[in-house]
């Protein structure tokens, strides 16, 4: 083919050189005879090359293959139905599903974000060609609307992924079709925060067809699962469990595959940032009993109580709005605050009593002084009178 092109361009270059404008007018006849011969020679060669190309390379284009397969003339036949020759045979769909990255886990919204690699493979029984008939063409891409596709989806998905998807399907000469559904999955995940920060979370990703029943497709897993990359720093990966199960509806039973990602929280930071400070404030509060009972002690205690309350506000960012059971960490926090409240009340009580005591003592002193004064007066009076 390349050679043909080379010859063609060489010939046209020669012809262009001998254009009439370039030829001196003194030899018109000679030029014309020469040119005519050249042109007819050129035409002959052109015809030869072109017909040769048509004969030897007619099957090297994608169009030839599409025409052979009938992908264009019988377009609808390929999209309308399951690509099996006998409808009673279920179509085997091989799935490669990999949780590649765990991006985010939000306790408050109860969502799980992950990046998954998801490839589907099946055989279209109406597509096949002999590679040697088509210049050794083994595979090509078609727009994904051109062929039937299984209607698999992930049932936990809450939000449609906005990242671009591959618009193509790959077809192999044996009729094998590969479909790519890599995506970022925003899914729901019911999180258990009862034991926070020593909790383990399990998030499910369940693959299920919308309509296709077990009589129509069977799902099969290929490839082993790899350990995902955890981008969410608060958690570490523990395990991935896979379970194949079926819907309970007998007549239209569907196959499902559930991937359960198990993650464990890294609790060190929670302990250092929350549990320990609260405990320290608690002990400080009780240590303040050693202080003298003055107004300073009271303000010290109130400051500590406020500090604990501020720390407690941090929990708002972690805990879901209405958890099933009250998380232990909240109980711990409330317990500490309650104890501190009691100690504060006690201090207030003591100060009140001391104050009253002091006042009554003062009053007593005053009265005594007055008495003394009076006594003194009476004494002096007595003295006077004496
Ligand atoms: C279609 O498949 C069913 C079940 O596999 C089989 O019994 C039947 O003979 C097949 N029909 C044809 C025409 O091959
Ligand atoms: C493909 O064609 C070649 C020759 O055209 C033939 O030898 C070969 O057996 C064919 N292969 C298949 C799978 O039909
Ligand atoms: C081109 O493809 C057709 C089938 O569509 C086949 O019969 C023919 O032999 C092929 N020609 C060449 C040159 O490979
Ligand atoms: C996740 O899937 C497993 C297995 O099907 C199931 O037992 C579990 O209840 C599911 N968890 C959630 C939160 O849906």
Structural account:
With 386 residues, the chain is of the alpha+beta class. It has three domains: 2-57; 75-265, Acetylcholine Binding Protein, Chain: A (Distorted Sandwich); 269-371, Up-down Bundle (Methane Monooxygenase Hydroxylase, Chain G, domain 1), CATH 1.20.58. It is built from seven helices and 13 strands. It has helices at 2-17, 28-57, 62-69, 75-80, 268-287, 295-314, 328-385, and strands spanning 91-106, 111-123, 139-143, 152-154, 157-159, 168-172, 176-180, 183-188, 200-209, 217-221, 229-230, 235-246, 255-265. Strands 1, 2, 3, 5, 6, 7, 8, 10 and 11 form a nine-stranded mixed sheet that branches. The longest helix is centred in the C-terminal third of the chain and has 58 residues, at 328-385.
Task: Summarize the SSE layout with pairings.
Blueprint: H1 2-17, H2 28-57, H3 62-69, H4 75-80, E1 91-106, E2 111-123, E3 139-143, E4 152-154, E5 157-159, E6 168-172, E7 176-180, E8 183-188, E9 200-209, E10 217-221, E11 229-230, E12 235-246, E13 255-265, H5 268-287, H6 295-314, H7 328-385
Parallel strand pairs: 1-10, 1-11
Antiparallel strand pairs: 1-2, 2-7, 2-8, 3-6, 4-9, 5-8, 6-7, 9-13, 12-13
Helix pairs in contact: 1-2, 5-6, 5-7, 6-7
The structure holds 2-acetamido-2-deoxy-beta-D-glucopyranose (4 copies).
What descriptive keywords fit this protein?
386 residues; Acetylcholine Binding Protein, Chain: A; Methane Monooxygenase Hydroxylase, Chain G, domain 1; 3 domains; nine-stranded mixed beta sheet; 7 helices; 13 strands; binds 2-acetamido-2-deoxy-beta-D-glucopyranose; receptor
């Amino acid at each position: 083919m390349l050679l043909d092109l080379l010859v063609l361009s060489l010939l046209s270059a020669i012809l262009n050189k001998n254009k009439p404008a370039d030829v001196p007018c003194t030899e018109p006849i000679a030029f014309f005879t020469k040119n005519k011969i050249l042109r007819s020679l050129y035409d002959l060669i052109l015809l030869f090359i072109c017909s040769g190309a048509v004969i030897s390379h007619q099957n090297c284009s994608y169009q030839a293959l599409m025409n052979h397969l009938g992908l264009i003339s019988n377009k609808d036949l390929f999209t309308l139905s399951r690509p099996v020759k006998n409808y009673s045979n279920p179509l085997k769909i091989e799935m490669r599903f990999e949780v590649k990255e765990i991006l985010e886990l939000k306790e408050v919204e109860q969502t799980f974000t992950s990046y998954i690699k998801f490839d589907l493979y099946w055989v279209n029984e109406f597509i096949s060609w002999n590679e040697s008939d088509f210049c050794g063409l083994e595979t090509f891409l078609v727009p994904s609307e051109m062929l039937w596709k299984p209607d698999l989806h992930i049932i936990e998905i809450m939000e449609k992924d906005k990242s671009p998807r591959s618009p193509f399907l790959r077809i192999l000469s044996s009729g094998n079709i590969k479909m790519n559904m890599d995506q970022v999955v925003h899914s729901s995940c019911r999180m258990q925060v009862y034991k926070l920060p020593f909790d383990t979370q399990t998030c499910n990703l369940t693959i299920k067809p919308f309509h296709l029943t077990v009589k129509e497709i069977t799902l099969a897993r290929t490839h082993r699962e790899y350990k995902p990359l955890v981008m969410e720093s608060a958690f570490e990966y523990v395990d991935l469990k896979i379970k194949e199960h079926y819907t309970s509806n007998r007549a239209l039973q569907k196959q499902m595959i559930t991937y359960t990602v198990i993650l464990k929280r890294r609790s060190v930071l929670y302990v250092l940032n929350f549990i320990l400070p609260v405990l320290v404030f608690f002990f400080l509060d009780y240590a303040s009993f050693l202080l003298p009972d003055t107004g300073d002690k009271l303000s010290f205690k109130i400051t500590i109580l406020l500090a604990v309350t501020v720390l407690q506000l941090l929990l708002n960012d972690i805990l879901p709005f209405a958890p099933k059971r009250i998380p232990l960490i909240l109980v711990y926090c409330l317990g500490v605050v309650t104890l501190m409240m009691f100690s504060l009340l006690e201090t207030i009580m003591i100060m009140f009593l001391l104050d009253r005591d002091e006042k009554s003592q003062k009053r007593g002193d005053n009265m005594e002084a007055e008495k003394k004064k009076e006594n003194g007066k009476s004494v002096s009076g007595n003295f006077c009178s004496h």
